[in-house]
Write a structure and sequence with these properties.
Layout (H helix, E strand, L loop, with lengths): L1 E3 L2 E3 L10 H5 L2 E9 L2 E2 L2 H14 L10 H12 L6 E10 L12 E9 L13 E10 L13 H12 L4 E6 L4 E4 L2 E7 L2 E4 L10 H10 L6 E4 L4 H6 L2 E6 L3 E5 L1 E2 L2 E2 L3 H16 L1
Parallel strand pairs: 7-8, 7-15, 11-12
Antiparallel strand pairs: 1-2, 1-6, 3-4, 3-5, 5-6, 8-9, 9-10, 10-11, 10-13, 13-14, 15-16
Length: 278
């Protein structure tokens, strides 16, 4: 089941041949986790989507209130048998035109996939990463948005799969590490927790925001947003990735360096406590 512009139906009826999201990547989206008919981090998702639409010069329909956004998700997941679901809310520009669209009006599509676990699970698995150097993330505003232009992440994922890595870390045009393929990066070094600033080109992640808030409550931990060089990775005590579906994923190895996971575990416990209260 999918939600096409507010109508629940068996499958999407949009024509791929004329869909600007398919043809030009003229689309923005949110990846959302729901639990027990609640949208987790609803306000953060809604305001990020509205900001993305404005930056991309999309016309925001009058009915696109936060309540409407929430209702379109909840109406769809009524058809799920799972307590927790992964939801994608896609918005794309309609109309003709090539690079110059004939209109800035939009349509939307909501899809979902059931999740096995209701709460976040801390996966203590071997998780080795490597730098992806074939393409770079540019230090500009569009890099911080969730758009359909994800070729860097796709080719990086293929590279990781072909070479036996669980993930790759992406570099920007200054050769600093900005994020993982599907999440933000955090590095613990001594009593500091460091994550790249949005200005470096990393995704303005919803879970990134939650982790920063939770980490600031950890006694004796200094939370800093600053650039991370590849050389810093070798000196770190701990590395982990965050996203809204997985929560927190510890990195166990980068080249010859191995890492602990004590802070990631602590934040994972705090994150699940936050979810239970939401």
């Amino acid at each position: 089941m999918v939600n096409c512009n507010g109508t629940i139906q068996q499958e999407a009826t949009f024509s791929v041949a004329t869909n600007r999201g398919f043809l030009f990547g003229d689309s923005v989206f949110e990846t959302i986790r729901t639990l027990n008919n609640k949208v987790l981090f609803l306000e953060d998702h809604y305001f990020r989507l509205m900001a993305s639409m404005r930056i991309c010069r999309m016309e925001i329909p009058m009915q696109f209130t936060m309540e409407y956004f929430e209702s379109q998700i909840l109406n769809l997941i009524q058809h799920s048998n799972a307590a927790a679901n992964r939801v994608r809310f896609s918005v794309f520009r309609i109309g003709d035109g090539f690079y110059l669209p004939s209109t800035n009006e939009v349509e939307f599509l909501v899809t979902f996939q059931p999740l096995e676990n209701e709460l976040y699970v801390f996966n203590e698995v071997d998780y080795e990463v490597e730098l992806f150097k074939d393409s770079y993330v540019t230090k500009q505003l569009l890099s911080t948005l969730k758009t359909n232009n994800k070729m860097v992440q796709i080719t990086g994922s293929i590279f990781a799969h072909e070479n036996g890595y669980k993930n790759c870390l992406l570099l920007n045009d200054d050769k600093n590490v900005v994020e993982a393929l599907q999440g933000n990066l955090f590095m613990k070094m001594n009593n500091q927790l460091i994550t790249p600033p949005i200005a470096d080109g990393c995704l303005n992640g919803i879970m990134r925001k939650q982790i920063l808030t939770l980490a600031k409550k950890v006694e004796g931990l200094q939370v800093i947003e600053k650039s991370i060089s590849p050389f810093d990775l070798q000196k770190a005590d701990e590395l982990f990735i965050s996203n809204v579906i997985q929560g927190v994923q510890s990195i166990t190895k980068y080249r010859k360096k191995t890492y602990e996971n004590s802070l990631a575990k602590e934040l994972y416990v705090k994150l699940n406590a936050l979810v239970r209260l939401s």
